[in-house]
C-alpha cells in the first residue's frame, strides 16, 4: 500500500466529555473540589495527532451552552478543526474519575447516557464534504456503544470514508459500563468490513467477535487479519504492578508478515486515562509517515502512550521530538538546562 | 392555632444535587477546576433548621454510587436523618453555577433531567411512619417540576402529612429552566389545599395560580389566604443593585390580620444560592417556636437569608444566636476577640 | 462611508505577554505563587472581536519555546488565526500585576524590553496577503513604543492596510513605563495619517500631539478630526472611587456631527486590565455592524469594557447578547436559573 | 467463644484532634497553608468500623467552640453517634504533621497537653447506659497517656464494659512524645485485666509490661496470652524502605492455637497516619463477623491498613468490598470503567 | 522634647502567634484548609517600622520547634533582629480567625493560654544591653494580659527602658477573651508611669483606669495627659458599616496643645487584623522622624492603618512612599504602568 | 592545612532568580498558575550553610523593584546577610521549570540574559571589607557564564579573597543553555589558580579544561590536583532511573591521598533543582568543621544533596542533625511522634 497523503486531514468522530477529578488522589465521596478537563477517545486521538503535526478535524455533537463552548475552546486550543461539530440537545456528557494510588485502583462514574453526543444522527454531517479532503478516519467502540443514533452515524461515516479511499482505523475500546458483551456483539461485526488498521486484543476477538476461544493468540490475529482483510492489528499488553507503576509492551500484526514487538517498559503513572488513545495516535502518526514501517509506528505508539501517562488529563501533547527522545533515552534523562 | 410540637421532626422532601462552581468568580467556559458542594431547596431547609436546633429528616432518592454517598455524608454532617433516602437509579443531579460579579449576573446550567430524584415514587417511602413523629413538612415547587413521579410522590406525602396533622409549608420556587408556566399551572393548584404556610410572591398568584392580574398586591394576598385557607403567606422583595450588592425586606400576610414587614437591609453577597431556602428556614424556625408571632418569624427569615449570602454554598449554618446578633447589630459588628 | 465588509477578517498586531498575578490580591514581594494568563493590547482586541463573531487574525513574534506555544494555544482557544505569527528570538515578554484593592492601587512590573515582539521586522510578514482579505486593522501605541523594529513594522503594516482600503483604528495607549513623552512625540504623528477611528483622550492631543493646551476638550476633538481626517474619535472618562469601584462613561466625536455620550455607569472591578481593549473591541464591533451608528458602537464599547472588568484576565469573552443584556438591565439581573 | 452481637454498637473512647498538614510534602517551617482534618486513634477506629457497616459511638470531650463543632461534624458525616461527647473546657487538641517523602521522615508536633480531652472525668459519662447496648469497646494507650483524668475515665469505662459483657480491645500505641516508659509502666498493667483482644508488639511486652527481655517473640506472646487471659494478640511488622514505600505483614496469636500470619505486602504510601487504627478496625470487623476466624480478621486488618495509607487523612473509609477486592487482586487492578 | 535618635533601634516585646484563617471567607467549622501566617501586636509594629526604614528588635519567647523556627524566619524576612528571642517551653501560641464578610462579623478563637510567650521571665533578657542601643520601646496591653510572668517581664523592661531614656509607647489593646476588666484594672496602672506616648480610647480611661465616667471625652484626655505626664494620647474612631467597609479617623491629644484630627476615610477591608498595630506603627514612625509634628504622625498612622487592611495577614509592609501616596491621592489611583 | 575559622563568614556571589514552576507536574504550555520561589547556585549554598549554622553573606545585584525585594526577603528569612547586594538595573532574572515525572524529563527555560546580575561590576563591591571577616568564598561557573561584567567581578572577588587568605571553592556547573564549551574554555582556566576546593567531573576536565581525553578518571583527577594545586576535588555520580528515582554516590580526591567514596544511595526525587548546591554545601560544612576529614564532608554532601531532593524549591533547609540522622538510618525512619 502506498503512503498516506500527509497533507490531508485526519478525521475522528465521537463524544468529548467534561472530566471531573478530585485533586491530590482524593476520593469522590469526600471531594470539595474537582479538577476539570475535557476528553474522549477519538477527541484525544485528534489532539495528539495535531501535536504530532497533522491537520485534524473532530466530529461530534455538543450542547449549546458554556460547557459545550468549553469543549470547543479546548479542541481549538490544540489546533483542531471544530467546524463540523453540531450544537444541539441540552446535556453535556461527564465523567468523574477517582485517581488510583498504589494498591487502590481508580474508579470512573459516567454521566453520559443522555448527552448531546448520543443524539448525533447521520443527517447532522456532510460526510461527503468532510472526507473529500481527508486521509485517515479514526473511530472507536465507545462511540458505537452510545446509542442507536451514534451507531447509525458511525456506519454512515465509515461508508463515506471508504468511498473517498480514506484509511480507517478502529479501536475496540469495549466498555462494560456502557453496554453488555451481548449488545456489543451485534454491532462490532458491522464495523469490521470498513477497517484497515485495528486496535484490538485477543479478548476482543474471542469475546466480542466470537472467534474460537481455544485458538492461541497469534493464530487468532492471523485469522482476524485474513477474515476482515485488515492491514494491521495493533495492541499493547499491560502488567499492573500498582495503580502508579505498570509495565507495557506493544505489538503489531501485519497482514502477511511476522508480528512485531516493542521493548517492554516499566514506568510510573501520573494519570493513566487516555493511554490507549495516545497509543493509537502514535501508531497512526507512524503509519501516516510511512505506512510500511509498522515497527516505527509501534515504537511511536508505546512511547506516546507512556509519556501521556506522565501528565494530567486525557490527552497527549507530545511532539515527535519528545517521542524520539524518549525512545533514545528510555526515560533516563537529565533536566534540560 | 396552638404551637408546633418542637420535640417532633421537621420533614422535607426533594432533590439534593452536586453543585459545581468555578472558583474566584470564574466563567464556566474557561474553568479548569470547580468547587463542589451539595444543595437543593428542601435539603437546604433541613440543614438550616438542624443548625437552628430542630430534629430534621430529608426524604429523597440518590444513586448508589460515591456521589450519592457524598450527598448523604453532607446531610449527616449537619445532623440530618437520612434513613428514608432511597438509593437507586443511576444518575446524580448536578448543576453548574457561574457566580455573578458586579454588573455580570450569575448563570446556572442544570444537569438533572434524568436524575435519581426524578424517579422517586410514592411506594419508595413509608409516609405513614415518617409523618407519625413529625411536626412540620416543607416542600417546594422545584420538586413538583421534576417529573410525574415526583408529582405523585409530593401529593402522597402531602396527603399523609395532613392525616397526621403535620403543619405544611410550601415554597412556590417556580423555575423557568425546569418547566413552562403552562405546565406549572396544572400542578400548583393540586398542592394548595394542603398548605398552611405559603412562600409566594404576587407574580406566583397572577401568573401561575391565575388570579386576576389587575388586583393590587395586598388584595391578592388576602384573596389567596381566604381561597386556600392559609395561615400565612410569606415572601421577600429584593432590589438587585449588582450581583454583589442587594437590598431586601420581607413580609408576612397572616390570615386575618394586617401584613407585617421587616426593616429593609442593604447587604453584600458572597454567594446568593440558597437565600430563599434560608429565608424559609428562618420563618419556619420562628413559627415552630411561636406560631403566633409572625413578626419574629419574618425577622428570623430575613436575617438568616442575609447571613446565608455571606458564606459559600447552598446552606445556612447559622445558629439562633448568630441571627439574634445580626438583628441586634444590623451587621455592624467588631471582630470578636 | 459604507459599511465594513463583515465577512472579511479583523487584523490586529502587537505583543502578547505572559501575565503573572499574585492570587487573592497578594503583594508581589510576598508571592509564593502566581496566576498565569496571556494578554496584550491588540491581542485582547482580537480575542474580544472573535467572541463578538468576527474572523480575527493576530500578527506578532513569539519565542520558539513552550511559553510561545502557550500564547498561541491561548489565541487559538479563542478562535484567532495565528498563521502569521513568526516564531523567533529567544524571550517571551512578561508582566507582573499586583492587583489593587480598595485604597491600594495596582502595580505593574514589565519584563518585555528584549522580548521576541521587539524584534518584529517588516520582512517577517506578507502584509499584502494579510490585508487582501481584511476589513479592519487595529493597532495601539504600545506596539509603537516597543522598538525601532516594531515602529518600522507598524508603518509598513499601516501602509499596506491603506492600500487595501482596510479601515484602520488606533488606540493611543501611551505607557510612561515604556517610553517618555518626548520619544513618543516623534512617532505618533507618523501614524495619524493612516487612521480612520482613533481612541484618544484630550491628554493625548495636548501632550503627545502637542495641540494648543488651552483649547477646550470639544474644540480639541474637532480640530483633531479635521487635521487628521478622522471618521471618529472615541474615548472614555473614568472616575476612580477606589481600586475596586469606578465610574465610567464613553464619548464618540464623529467627523462633522455632534459628540455622542453614553450613560455614566458605576461598577465594581474584579480585574481592570484590558478594560481599554474591551472598550475598543466593543466600539469596533459596533462600527463593523453599522459604521454610521456611533451611538450603538459607544454603548457596545462601554458595556464590553465594564463586563471585562468583572472577570479575571486581560480579555473580554462576552458575546453580543451578554452586552445587549447588560445595556438593557444595567447590571441589575437575577441569577439565570 | 460465641460470636459478637453485630446489631449492637461498637464504642470507642479517646481524643479527636485537628490535624494540620503542610500541603505537597512541604515543611512546617515554610508553610503558608495547612490542610485540615480531624483524627485520633479511637475516633479513627469508629469511623472505619462505621464504613464497614457497624453502628459506632465515640466518647470524648470537646471544647464548646467552632473547632469542636467541626470535629463533631466530621464524626457525624461518617455516621458516628456523637450523643455522648461532652462539650467543655476551652481548648481543642491539635497536631501538626510534616509528611515524609522518600529519604526524609515525617514529623509530628503535638499541641494537646491542655486539651478538653485531658479533662474527661468518669462522671461526664453514663457508662452504664452506653455499654448496655454495646457489643465491643476499643481503647488505646494514647488515651491512657493524656492525664490522670483520662486514666480514671478509662478504668471506669473498662469496668463498666466488662460488667456488660462487652468485648474489649486495646491498642498499646505507646507514644514517647506523650509520656516516658517509666510513667507508662504504671498504667498499662491496670488495663490488662479487662482486655480480650490486644494490639501489641514484642517491644510493648518487654519494655512496658517488663516481661523477660530474653524470651523469644513467640514465647512472649504465649506467656502474655496466658498471663492476661487474652483471646488474641494482634500486630503487624513494618519494614520501612522509605517514607513512601513500606513492606508489611500482620500476625495474630490466639490463646491456645498456632500463630497466624498474613502475606507480606509491599506498598506505596500517600499518608501513613492512621495505619494502625485501620489495622485494628479491620481486625475488629473480622472478629465481629466471626470471632473464631482470626485469619480472616488479620487479612481484613492488613488490607484496611494498606488501603488507608493510599488516601489523605487519619481515617479509612473503605467498605468490606473494597477490602475483599484488595485481597483478591493484591492491588493490581485496572481502572473501573 | 528633642527628636528621637533615628539611628538607634526600636524595640518591641510580646507574643508572636501562628494565625490560621479559613480561605475565601470560609467558616472554621467547615474548613478543610487554613492559610497560615504569623502575627502578634508588638511583632506587627516591629515589622511595619522595619518597612518604614527603622532598625527593629523583637523580644519574645518561642518553642524550640519548627513552628518557632517559622516565626523567626517570618521576622527575619522583614529584617527584624531576633537575637534576643529566647527558645524554650514547648508550645506555640495560635489563633484561628474566621474572616467576616458583609453583615457577618469575624471571629477569633485563641489557643495561647499555655504558650511559650506566657513563660517569659525577666531573667531571660539582658534589658540593660538591649536598651543601651534603643531609641523607642513599644508594648501593648496584650502582653500584660498573658501571665504573671509576662507582667513581671513587662515591668522590668519598662524600668530598664526608662533608665536608658528610651521613649516608651503603650497600646491599651484590652482583650476581653484574655482577661476580665477587673483583672486588667490591677495592672494597667502599674504601666502608666513609664509611658510617653499612649494609644488609648475614652473607654479605656473610664473602664480600666476608672476615670470619672461622666467626664466628656476631651476632658478625659486632658486629665489623663496631666495625671500620667504623657506626651501624646493617640487613637482612632471606627464606624463599622459592614465587615468589609468601615469609616475611620484618628486623633492625637498633645500634652498642652489642642487635639489634632485627621480626615475621615471610608475604605474597603480585605483583612482587618493588625489595623491597630499599623496605626501605632505609622504614628511612631512620624514621631521618630519629628517628635513635634503630631499631625504628620496621625496622618501616617491612619494611612498605614487603612493600607494594612487592604492586604492579607497581620502586618503592614508599606513604605513611607506608599503612605505618602495614599495621603496625596486618598486611594483613588490608577494602576501604575 | 589548619582548620577554617568557623566564627567568620562564608561569602558566596552570583545571581538569584525567581523560579516559576507549574504545579502538580504540569506542562508550561498549559500552565494557568506557577509556584514561585527564589534560587540560584551560590545563593542556595549560602542558605544551606546558614541552616548548618554558619554566618553567611551573599553578594549580588538585584533590580530596585518588588521582585528584588522578594529575593532579599527570601535570603533574610534564611538568615543571610544581604547588606552587600547592590540594587540597580531594571530586570530580575527568571527561570521556568517544568518538573519531570517518571519517563518525562524536566525542562528549564531561562529568562536571565539581561538581568541585573549580568550588570554586576567590580566597583559595586568593597571586596576588601567583605573578605576581611570571611573564612570561605564559594563561586560557580554559572556566574562566570553570565556576562563580561560578571567575569570581571568574579576575578576581582577571587583576587581579594586570596589576599585575605580565604578558602575558595568553585563549582564547575557548566550550563550549555548559557554559553558554548568554546566560550567556556576561555574563562574557566582563569579561575583555577584561585581555587582550593573544586567541584568538578571528569567531563569538565576533558571538555572544558581540555585535559587529555584518553586519560582514565582517577589519573585525570590526580593531574588536576597537581596542576592547579588543589586541596580537594569533589563530585558525585548520578544514575538516572527516571525523573523521580535516581542513584547517587559522591567522591572526594584529596591532594595526595587515596580517593574517598561514599555509599551509593537509591532515592526518590520530589524536586531535583539545587541538588548540586546542597552537595557543595554539605561538603563545605564538613570541611569548615574539619578540613582534614574529607570522608565526613563527602557524607554530609551526599546526605544534604539527597534530602534537598525531597523538598520543593532550590534550597536545602536541613540542619546537621537532620543530615546525621539520614546517614544513620539511610532514610528508613518512622514518623517521629
Q: Explain this structure to me?
A:
6 copies of one chain form a homohexamer. The first copy, chain A, has about 325 residues and is α/β, with parallel strands linked by helices. Chain A is about 35% helix and about 25% strand. The first copy, chain A, contains 11 helices and 15 strands. The first copy, chain A, has helices at about 40-50, 65-75, 125-130, 140-145, 150-165, 180-190, 200-210, 215-225, 275-290, 295-310, 320-330, and strands at about 10-15, 15-20, 35-40, 55-60, 60, 85, 95-100, 105-110, 135-140, 165-170, 195-200, 230-240, 245-255, 260, 265-270. In chain A, strands 1, 4, 9, 10, 11, 12, 13, 14 and 15 form a 9-stranded mixed β-sheet that branches. A 4-stranded mixed β-sheet of chain A has the order 3-2-7-8. In chain A, helix 1 (about 40-50) packs across helix 9 (about 275-290). The mean pLDDT of chain A is about 95. Chains in contact: A-B, A-C, A-D, A-F, B-C, B-D, B-E, C-E, C-F, D-E, D-F, E-F. The interface of B and D includes residues 73, 74, 76, 77 and 79 of B.
Looking at this protein, list some descriptive labels.
36% helix, four-stranded mixed sheet, alpha/beta, homohexamer, 11 helices, nine-stranded mixed sheet, 337 residues, 15 strands
* Beta-strand content estimate of chain A: 15-25%
Provide the helix percentage of chain A.
25-40%
Largest interface: A-B, 30 and 30 residues
Structural class of chain A: alpha/beta
* First-residue to last-residue Cα separation of chain A: 43 Å
| Strand element count of chain A | 15
Query: What is the mean predicted local confidence, pLDDT of chain A?
Result: 95
Largest sheet of chain A, in brief, is: 9 strands, mixed
Runs of chain A in which pLDDT lies below 50 for 5 or more consecutive residues are none
Q: What general outline of chain A do the C-alpha atoms trace? A: globular
User: Could you give the order of the helices and strands of chain A?
Assistant: EEEHEEHEEEHEHHEHEHHEEEEHHH
Tally of alpha and pi helices of chain A = 11
Oligomer: homohexamer
| Rg of chain A, alpha carbons | 19 Å
